[in-house]
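Appendix B. Chain record.
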Amino acid sequence: MKKLKLLKFNFFRKCGLNWLKRQPVTLNIAGSSPVFFDIKFIMIYLLETELPNKNSITIALKKIYGIGKFNSIDLCKKLGFSKTLKISDLTVEQKNKLIKLINESKILINSSLILVKNKNKKKLVEIKLYRGIRRIKGFPVRGQRTRSNAKTAKKIV
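Structure tokens predicted for this chain:
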């Protein structure tokens, strides 16, 4: 069943149908009977992140790496969206406004945020700060004890 769901999702993503259409769709997979399902339950792909259609916009925006509860509520207020507005009810214009506002605001999201975080960690290592040395050795960085409980910190480098 999971494999079929994945096939459905990949099919729609390739065809570009995961935006707003809500009519039932037939999917023929080789060697099986046609499958009928409704697109409104498929996820929307915005800003390198898949947002579930059934969630309200404030909850769905929190799924984007770098946008938390405060930022999602703030973005909704700036755009005039209610907190209960579902992702599936957004029009293409509203999605474009949302993307434009996030790009104009100086919020780091997804890959750019990850790059900045990694850059900061590498800088600590380069200037041989105590935290950088601890990171190289794989020990806890923030002062936790190593006598008994440093097993997880040693795994994460």
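Further analysis of this model is presented in Appendix C.
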